[in-house]
Amino acid sequence: MSTPAVRLPVPRVPGRHGRLQDIPVGAAKRVLLAAPRGYCAGVDRAVVAVEKALERFGAPVYVRKQIVHNVHVVRELEERGAVFVDEVDAVPEGAHVVFSAHGVSPAVVSAASDRGLQAIDATCPLVTKVHREAVRFARDDREILLIGHEGHEEVEGTAGEAPEHITIVTSPEHADTVEVRDPSRVVWLSQTTLSVDETMETVRRLRVRFPELQDPPSDDICYATQNRQVAIKKIAAETDLVIVVGSANSSNSVRLVEVALEYGARAAHRVDYADEIRQEWLDGVRTVGVTSGASVPEVLVQQVLASLADAGYADVDEVRTAEEDLMFSLPKELRTDAAGKQDARARGGRGRS
């Protein structure tokens, strides 16, 4: 007998509740708009995967956890027929289920198979790379120190690949106390959405204690996370206020707030929607920096810019620190339509403008 699907709670999509006021600050007002910002290739691929699954198989299509950590994206997909559930045992037997961009452990894959679910794996390929590294190091009987946030879906998925070999290290301070069995056979991996600076500080402290600590074969923190942090570092010192568009459960969005403050912004706040900007944040503010996390659609940024324009911040300068053109192919189950014809998006999500 199937367990009834349990929908994950998703906040409402608010409308704009009045305009921000244009209060003089004694100088010209401006916005520094960071670039790159917003959707990365892995997020784009995952969101298109759910859209394509709905087109191909019809509603409902079930998704384990939030496909990406953005409440607006989840709400839009829910309105189209996606049903977000906490675990696969809430999915009716035989139904289609999409695994989120953050990845899942082998135990989740096995549970889906046991229920006869038709699974579509939308895990970001960069996360999959970390999973493969964990498997390989475990096979070599290495002890893996996984730097990441306890309880984050990506960390749970990676740790599930080799639980007997992995210890999670949650912070630089934790690195000072973590214990290992054999200091000569230790390697580190990391969650892909961490602060680059904090991760490197954690590695530095680990290496003080374990001089033979081995590095992963390539950088685990994803290109998009790094690029967005570099971009906000570039403008932070010139800003009185930074607004980061992104959800509270988005690790990379939360890190952008921290990075902005660390690199000189006088204040920084995260918002999901433009109507969350408070008038008092703008008191005495001449320059506002704006960016968005890697799971945020550009429409939400444009709404923030429109609200800031109401408050007199109509002069927008985009500050670009990198170009991004990476795209990932869709999951194999979605590369063709029902007639076997290749979908135009099969080789890389929705594409780039």
What is the compact description of this entry?
With 353 residues, this protein is of the alpha/beta class.
Question: How would you explain this protein's 3D organization?
Answer:
A 5-stranded parallel sheet has the order 10-9-11-1-12, with helices on both faces. A 4-stranded parallel sheet has the order 3-2-4-5, with helices on both faces. Strands 7-6-8 form a 3-stranded parallel sheet, sandwiched between helices. The chain is 33% helix and 16% strand. With 353 residues, it is of the alpha/beta class. It contains 10 helices and 12 strands. Strand 9 (241-245), helix 9 and strand 10 (268-271) form a beta-alpha-beta unit. It is globular, with a radius of gyration of 21 Å. The longest helix has 17 residues, at 41-57. The termini are far apart. Mean pLDDT is 92; it is low at 1-16. Helix 4 (125-139) packs parallel to helix 5. The protein has helices at residues 41-57, 71-80, 106-114, 125-139, 153-159, 172-175, 196-209, 223-236, 251-262, 298-310, and strands at 30-35, 61-64, 82-85, 96-99, 118-121, 143-147, 166-169, 186-190, 241-245, 268-271, 287-292, 316-320.
Low-pLDDT runs of 5+ residues are 1-16
**Count the strands?**
12
Count of helix runs: 10
In terms of DSSP E residues, the strand content is 15-25%
Strand numbers in spatial order across the main sheet: 10-9-11-1-12
Rounded mean pLDDT is: 92
Order of helices and strands: EHEHEEHEHEHEHEHHEHEEHE
Q: Span between N and C termini?
A: 47 Å
- Radius of gyration using CA atoms only: 21 Å
